[in-house]
Amino acid sequence: MTDHPGPQDPPDAASTGATAHGSDAHGSAMHGSDAADTRAFRELLRGLRVWDVELPSFDPATAPDEPLPLFRQWLREAAEAGVPEPHTMTLATADASGDPSVRTLMLHDADERGWHFASHRGSRKGRELAVRPRAALGFYWARVGRQVRVRGPVAAAGPEESAADLHRRSTGALAAGLVGRQSEVLGSAEELARASDAAWERARREPEAPVPSWTLYVLRAEEVEFFQGDAQRRHIRLNYRYEDGRWVQELLWP
C-alpha cells in the first residue's frame, strides 16, 4: 500500500512521463488531449485515499499455531465488517513456460485439506494447473486493511466430489457451467446469449445436470501470510511456513 498523498507540486515531464515534445515514456507522440488525460489519470491515482477508516488491531502473539483458524476468523470478521463478497480471491497460475496469469474467483471452502476453488479443466487456469500444479491465492479486505496470501501445490478432486461441488451451488452457477467453453474465443455476444439461455433452461429443468469438465481444485498451503494494515504504516505481517510436519511462524518487515 502507498502513503496518503500530500500536497502536490505541479506535474513536470519526469512525473508525467511526457517530454517537451509531447511524447510519453515509450517515445510515442501524444496529442494534447492524450497528455491531459494521462496527467488527469495520474493525479487521480495520487489523490486516492488509503485506509481513512479505523482499522482493527492484531496481536500476532495471540495467533493460533496453524493458519486455518485465523483465516476463517479473518474472513468472518471481514463479512461482519460489511466487506462485499469477502470470499472473492485472486488466483495466480503459470503456464509451461512460466508466464503467469491471474484472475478473480470465489473460494468454495477452506478446511484441513486446503483452500478449495473450481473451474473447467479446459479453461486457462485448468490447463495451466495441469502442467504446473502450483498456485497462489490473494485475499484483500480493504475495509479492515487486511490481506491473506496463500501458496502451495494444487490437486484436482475426483469427478464425484467435483460434481457435488457444482450442484451445491446456485442455478446460475450450474447454468454457467453448462455453457462451458471457458477461455475459448467467442464469436459474438449473440452467440453467448443463445448458449446462456439454453443453459439456464436446462439448469432449471435438470438441477443435477452433469458438467464433466467441472473440476474442484484444492490448494494445500505450504505458506500463509497474514497482513494487518496500520495507518502509521507499521503493518503487521505474520507468516506461516510448513516445515518438517509442522507450522513455523515468523514476523516479516512491512
Shape: globular
Helix content: 25-40%
Q: How many β-strand runs?
A: 10
What's the story with the biggest beta sheet? Answer: 10 strands, antiparallel
Span between N and C termini? 10 Å
The mean pLDDT is 89
| Poorly predicted residue ranges | 2-21
- Which strand-content bin applies to the residues? 25-35%
Number of helical segments with 4 or more residues: 7
Q: H/E order of the elements? A: HHHEEEEHEEHHHEEEE
What does this structure look like?
The chain has 254 residues and is an alpha+beta fold. 30% of the residues lie in helices and 28% in strands. The protein contains seven helices and ten strands. Strands 1, 2, 3, 4, 5, 6, 7, 8, 9 and 10 form a ten-stranded antiparallel beta sheet that branches.
Outline the fold blueprint.
Layout: H1 13-16, H2 32-47, H3 67-80, E1 88-94, E2 100-106, E3 109-111, E4 114-120, H4 124-131, E5 134-141, E6 146-156, H5 159-167, H6 171-179, H7 189-205, E7 214-219, E8 223-228, E9 236-243, E10 246-252
Quick take:
The chain has helices at 13-16, 32-47, 67-80, 124-131, 159-167, 171-179, 189-205, and strands at 88-94, 100-106, 109-111, 114-120, 134-141, 146-156, 214-219, 223-228, 236-243, 246-252. By secondary structure, it is of the alpha+beta class.
